[in-house]
C-alpha cells in the first residue's frame, strides 16, 4: 500500500486503473496535496468540500468543542498518536473500553488465502460520562498502531453533535460535525461519504452481524498471529453488544437534530428530513442467519431470505404497527445452492488476486432500509411533523422496493425546501401530491400515494395489512419456482450493484461477485411479486 495512505482506511472496492493499482478514493479528500505542513501537538480543521486546506483550529474554536477528545486531550495540549495512548489518557471507568472486531476477510481461514490482506479493524466504545458511549473509535488491528488509521466520532454533549476526528501524524484533524454531513457543501465528502446523515455507522447492524466477531461467527486468526497477544484483542466481545450501542447513538443524534430544527414554530430544511422517508440516503446490510457453506446439504429444507429484502419491515411493521399474516418468504436450500453455480457466485479481491467460488460467509447478503432513515421517520411521527398515516402512505408507494425506489423518490418534488410551519407539514405535502395526481396516470407515484391517502383513518392499517399479506403470499408462491427464484437472485444483484456505487461500499469482499453483467438492467419488484426493468 502506498505510504501516503498508511494512516487512512484502505478501501479495496475503490480500485482504479487497468493495472488494479490501489487508490484510496474513500478518503482522497481528507488532506489535499499542498496543505500546510502539520506541526506537532496541534489540532487542525479540514472539512472536505468546505476547507481547501487544513488550518490550525483557533483557541476560540477549540474552547467551543465539548466532546471528550477536546476536553480530555486537545484543550490540555495532549495529542495521543496511537489508540493505546488515547485509552491511557481517558478517565478510568469500569468496564471500559468495550472492544469489537470486524473484517470482511475474517471468516476466510488464513491458511486458505495466505496472500489475502486481512484488514482486521478494532471498533471501541468508551462511556466517559454516564452510561452512554460518547467516544467511538476505529483503528487497524493488524498494523502498526502508530501508522495505521485512527479515527474517532465523539459526542459533544454541550453542542449536541458528533465531532469527527482523525490522527494525521504528528497532529490531529477535526473533519467536521454532524451538521456538516447535512450541509450542501460538505455532504457526501470526506468522512461524510459514509456518515452521510451525521451519525455513527454500523452497516451490518443485525444478527448475524455480517463480518463482525459475534455470537454468530468468529474472525479466524493463524495460530502464530501476533494479534492474539494484543491486549485489546483479548478484550474483544461480540458485535451483538455493539448493535444496541449504535442504535442508541443514532437515536441520540436524531433526537438532537429534530429538537434543533423544530425549536420554533417552523422547521428548517424540511426536505433534509423528508428525504429520509422518500429516498434511500443510506442502507444497512442484511442476510440470512445461515452460513452459505452449510446450505448445500439442506436439500428441500426451507431457507428464509431476509424480510428487509421484500419490504421495509422495520418501519412498516415494527414502527407503524401494520400487522401481516404471513411468514418470511423462503426458498429451498437446493435451489439456493444451485443458483451459486448458475450465476457464477464467487468472492474476489483484485488487490490481492484472491478468488474463491461461492457466496459470502452468510448466505444472501443484500442492502435493506437504513436504521438512520427509519429513525428520522419515527422521530418525525413522534414529534407530530408528520402523522403515522402519512409515513405509511409514503412507504407503501412502491413498497416492494424498500431501497433505491425511483418511484418513491419522485415524491420529493412536493416537499418544501424553505423553512415551513411545523403544524400540518405532512398534510400540506399530502395535499400537493394529491392535487398533482389528478393530472397523472393511475400508475404514477402521485396516484399511488393519493390512493393510499384516501384510505379511512380508522382502517388504513388494516387495508395496508391486507396488501402486504397478499404480496408476501405471492412472493412465497414464486420463490419456490425456478423462474421466480432466479428473478429474485437477479433483483438482489441489481440492488447490490446500486450499493456498490455508494462510498459505503468500502471493501470488495463485503459482497459476492457474479457472472451477471455489470451492464444488466436495473430491476425493481412489483406488487404482484414479479420483477421488471426499472424505467
Widest sheet: strand order? 2-1-8-7-6-5-4-3
Give the oligomeric state: single chain
Tell me the β content.
Answer: 5-15%
Average pLDDT rating? 93
| Shape by Cα distribution | globular
The main pleated sheet reads as: 8 strands, mixed
Percent of residues in helices comes to 25-40%
Strand segment count: 18
Low-confidence stretches: 1-5, 14-30
Query: What is the CA-atom radius of gyration, in angstroms?
Result: 24 Å
How many helical stretches? 17
Structural class, judged by helices and strands?
alpha+beta
The rounded distance between the terminal residues' Cα atoms is: 41 Å
Account of the protein in words:
This protein has 17 helices and 18 strands. The protein has 535 residues and is of the alpha+beta class. α16 packs across α17 (482-500). The protein is globular. The two termini are 41 Å apart.
What's the arrangement of secondary structure elements?
Layout (H helix, E strand, L loop, with lengths): L42 E3 L9 E2 L2 H6 L3 H6 L9 H7 L8 E5 L18 E6 L8 E6 L9 E7 L4 E8 L2 E7 H5 L56 H23 L4 E2 L2 H9 L4 E4 L5 H4 L6 E3 L2 H4 L2 H7 L10 E3 H10 L3 E4 L4 E4 L8 E4 L1 H12 L5 H8 L10 H4 L10 E2 L3 H13 L7 H9 L6 H20 L2 H19 L22 E3 L5 E3 L2
Parallel strand pairs: 1-8
Antiparallel strand pairs: 1-2, 3-4, 4-5, 5-6, 6-7, 7-8, 9-16, 10-15, 11-12, 13-14, 17-18
Helix pairs in contact: 5-11, 6-11, 12-15, 14-15, 16-17
